[in-house]
Design brief:
The complex is a heterodimer.
Chain A lengths: L13 E3 L4 E3 L1 H18 L8 E6 L3 H12 L3 E8 L3 H17 L4 E5 H5 L3 H4 L7 H20 L3 E3 L4 H13 L3 H6 L3 E2 L8 E3 L7 H11 L15 H15 L3 H20 L4 E3 L6 E3 L11 H12 L9
Parallel strand pairs in A: 3-4, 3-6, 4-5, 6-8
Antiparallel strand pairs in A: 1-2, 7-8, 9-10
Helix pairs in contact in A: 1-9, 2-9, 7-10, 7-11
Chain B lengths: L1 E7 L3 E6 L4 H8 L6 E5 L2 E3 L10 E6 L6
Parallel strand pairs in B: 1-5
Antiparallel strand pairs in B: 1-2, 3-4, 3-5
Classes of the chains: A alpha/beta, B mainly beta.
Chain lengths: 317, 67
Amino acid sequence: MAMRCKRCRGQAVMELRRHNAAFCRDCFFQYVGQQVTRAIAKYRMLGHTDRVLVAVSGGKDSLALWDLLLDLGYRADGLYLSLGIGAYSERSRTVCQEFAAARSATLLVHDLAGEHGYTIPEAAGQGGRPSCGVCGLSKRYVFNRAALDGGYDVVCTGHNLDDEAAVLFGNTLRWDTAAMARQFPVLEATRPGLVKKAKPLYRVAERETAGYCVLKGIDYVVEECPLVAGNTQMRHKETLNQMEETAPGTKHTFLFGYLDRAAALLKVADVAELAECARCGMTTQAPDDPAEPPVCAFCRSKDRLVRSLPVVEVASR
Amino acid sequence: MLVTARLRPPDRTVEVADVRRVADLLARLEVLPGAVLVIRDGALLISQDELHDGDRVEVRFAISGGG
């Protein structure tokens, strides 16, 4: 006998073992919309008069998020950052542009090489930092800067329940309490130069965002980033998924238990002093030595990378 | 009976014999059901859905790294 939708008893198309539930197409959309609405309300992530910038990669999570926010009536524009990863980046940009065009939505396109002088493949193996680390750092910087320049009130990213559980898992294994203190569904703009950040999908599992896209007919980039193979977060996700298989709800309990019971304690202990970067003017952590000029992680990383790249001779006519 | 499964990413196609339901197929492929979607003719399948001889399905991994 076919499995039935928990709400309407129609034919189920998505099973959610952690909720011991299955949903038909329409009830699944309703469920996802409710999870996002609940996340936004609980952490006061955004309002209907806010100008929202959604960081989109062309993947399932960010496009599902942009689609949901538009459906929920938010003033949401998209921002795509080209990372220079060959055909993968080209395809990603096309997918984002087509998504925006189909909805008459505004998409801002930024280019890492054109604006900052390096690509992520060039960063791979250079400058002593893994490519995923440089990629994350570059994205955070560009998203914040673009939101400031464009007068946006909040930047939304497509981080989902699995992403957040995997990051928390990694931070816990290292007892990186400073990183844990900053891992929250919303980060307020605590000083000029910082834009509020929000993760409205933190209650939605990544299998659910993928299912949402398939059922909604959203064309997303299924291929994995060619640079991501074997990265730490993927390994942590695999470990958590093994645990989830035998105990559905493990990831949910781990993440939500942290947010409800431990996050506030760590936040109190996070007393990082902030300052203005002497090079770019963005907000960064103040150096331990007050005599030392503050330079943000992005500027330091960019300096190392651009110095390590070969100089290209341009022939003069 | 024979079912053709396309696994992506990366992109690999395999033929699997004698699997009656989606859950059987995933078990045979040693894939965690909580990590994938199974798609037939554009429609999502759930673990109890029956498979038929000649079916072509996509087993799409829903895990992505980065972020």
